[in-house]
Amino acid sequence: MKTRKLLDKLVAYLDGDARKRKKEKDEIKAVLKKLKRREKKLKNLLDETKDADKRTALQKEIDIVHAQRKKGVRLLKA
Hints:
By secondary structure, the chain is mainly alpha-helical. It has one domain (22-77). The chain is 91% helix and 0% strand. It has helices spanning 3-14, 16-48, 52-77.
Protein backbone atom coordinates (compact mmCIF):
# COMPACT_ATOMS: atom_id res chain seq x y z
CA MET A 1 0.00 0.00 0.00
CA LYS A 2 1.07 3.54 -0.60
CA THR A 3 2.02 5.70 2.33
CA ARG A 4 -0.95 8.03 1.86
CA LYS A 5 -3.42 5.15 1.95
CA LEU A 6 -1.82 3.76 5.11
CA LEU A 7 -1.98 7.17 6.78
CA ASP A 8 -5.64 7.54 5.84
CA LYS A 9 -6.37 4.14 7.41
CA LEU A 10 -4.48 5.08 10.53
CA VAL A 11 -6.36 8.37 10.90
CA ALA A 12 -9.67 6.57 10.38
CA TYR A 13 -8.73 4.01 13.01
CA LEU A 14 -7.67 6.58 15.56
CA ASP A 15 -10.56 8.93 14.91
CA GLY A 16 -13.38 7.49 17.00
CA ASP A 17 -15.85 10.06 15.70
CA ALA A 18 -15.37 8.90 12.12
CA ARG A 19 -15.92 5.28 13.15
CA LYS A 20 -19.12 6.28 14.91
CA ARG A 21 -20.39 8.12 11.81
CA LYS A 22 -19.55 5.13 9.60
CA LYS A 23 -21.41 2.79 11.94
CA GLU A 24 -24.47 5.07 11.93
CA LYS A 25 -24.29 5.30 8.13
CA ASP A 26 -24.21 1.51 7.83
CA GLU A 27 -27.19 1.17 10.18
CA ILE A 28 -29.18 3.74 8.19
CA LYS A 29 -28.43 1.86 4.98
CA ALA A 30 -29.71 -1.38 6.52
CA VAL A 31 -32.93 0.30 7.67
CA LEU A 32 -33.42 1.87 4.23
CA LYS A 33 -33.13 -1.55 2.59
CA LYS A 34 -35.75 -2.95 4.95
CA LEU A 35 -38.07 -0.01 4.27
CA LYS A 36 -37.66 -0.46 0.52
CA ARG A 37 -38.57 -4.15 0.77
CA ARG A 38 -41.59 -3.27 2.92
CA GLU A 39 -42.72 -0.62 0.46
CA LYS A 40 -42.49 -3.06 -2.46
CA LYS A 41 -44.39 -5.69 -0.49
CA LEU A 42 -47.14 -3.19 0.34
CA LYS A 43 -47.39 -2.04 -3.28
CA ASN A 44 -47.80 -5.65 -4.43
CA LEU A 45 -50.47 -6.18 -1.79
CA LEU A 46 -52.19 -2.97 -2.92
CA ASP A 47 -52.29 -4.24 -6.50
CA GLU A 48 -53.92 -7.49 -5.38
CA THR A 49 -56.49 -5.90 -3.05
CA LYS A 50 -59.97 -5.09 -4.38
CA ASP A 51 -61.58 -3.67 -1.22
CA ALA A 52 -61.59 0.14 -1.28
CA ASP A 53 -61.15 0.54 2.49
CA LYS A 54 -58.15 -1.79 2.58
CA ARG A 55 -56.68 -0.06 -0.48
CA THR A 56 -56.96 3.32 1.24
CA ALA A 57 -55.30 2.01 4.40
CA LEU A 58 -52.52 0.36 2.38
CA GLN A 59 -51.91 3.53 0.40
CA LYS A 60 -51.59 5.55 3.61
CA GLU A 61 -49.08 3.05 4.96
CA ILE A 62 -47.13 3.15 1.68
CA ASP A 63 -47.03 6.94 1.86
CA ILE A 64 -45.69 6.80 5.43
CA VAL A 65 -43.00 4.27 4.55
CA HIS A 66 -42.00 6.29 1.51
CA ALA A 67 -41.72 9.48 3.56
CA GLN A 68 -39.52 7.70 6.09
CA ARG A 69 -37.29 6.43 3.30
CA LYS A 70 -36.95 9.96 1.92
CA LYS A 71 -35.93 11.22 5.35
CA GLY A 72 -33.35 8.46 5.66
CA VAL A 73 -31.87 9.16 2.25
CA ARG A 74 -31.67 12.87 3.04
CA LEU A 75 -29.94 12.08 6.34
CA LEU A 76 -27.52 9.73 4.60
CA LYS A 77 -26.55 12.38 2.05
CA ALA A 78 -26.03 15.05 4.72
